[in-house]
Write a structure and sequence with these properties.
Layout (H helix, E strand, L loop, with lengths): L7 E2 L5 E9 L6 H17 L4 E3 L27 H13 L2 E11 L2 E9 L5 E6 L5 E2 L2 E2 L13 E4 L2 E5 L8 H9 L4 E5 L3 E3 L6 H19 L2 E5 L2 E4 L2 E4 L3 E3 L5 E4 L5 E8 L1 H9 L32
Helix pairs in contact: 1-2
Length: 309
Amino acid sequence: MPPTHKAAVTGTGVRTARIGLVQGAMCEDPARNVTQYLALAGEAADKGAQVIVLPELFRSTYFCQAEDDRHFALAEPVPGPTTEAFAAFARARGVVVVASLFERRAPGLFHNTAAVLDADGSLLGCYRKMHIPDDPRFYEKYYFTPGDLGWRVFDTRFGRIGVLVCWDQWYPEAARLTAMHGAEILVYPTAIGTWTGEKALQPVQHDAWRTMQRAHAIANGVFVAAVNRTGREGELDFWGGSFLCRPSGQLACEADAVQQVMVADADLSEIDRQRQGWPFLRDRRIDAYSGLATRWLDNPPASGGSARG
């Protein structure tokens, strides 16, 4: 029987969770993609991973490059065939799996959803992507209804995991609120790349993506795991670069641009130490942030007001 503790505890009392990042490319056949990622997840488990994170929408190529109603056929219910396959895997290997899916919630109602499967195979719940982009080659608003489950944290066998998805990763509010719900590890299933017509900008875009998520780790004192896809699909080059970031902002591991399975330890006791040393949560001025609940502040600060550093 798998152990029932929530994270490995060493003789020194340190709580650790081994995080598996599964990065790869996708083909046109959903069944083959599921088979491939079950095998890659197995490789991560063989390396000792306890929490395994898959890329965004790993069951298909990134279909949001065009608005085409034929792609709605890729959606499936949750729970459904893919969650059942990974639930059986999670139960057999005693691991947690975060699996990103195109969810068919009801006729005409679809979400970009991440399912969280605990180490006994149970479906702990889902997070539905809240921020939905609508840009050239990222026409997600055509397919996905914005999430309505709020910011979610899942108490898994190996730690408290907060799940966000791709475009969510650019919003400090999302990371902060999820951390405030008690997340120890923020995970971001991701499908991010560069338009082939802007190839020269890829290093800048990649660095901005990595920097933003490292900032979430530092500002909130949590671990951050970002898992991307790789390869060229249509007019997009997905750059890979999946990584696990520590609460200090340091990278525990980072992939290059090819298929790769990485496993790294998250010493969860670092969260307390980091927050004690950099007490950002203590020093938040919650009495001064009401403006964050508005779209834009049209009126400049009053003369002699609080517009000083």
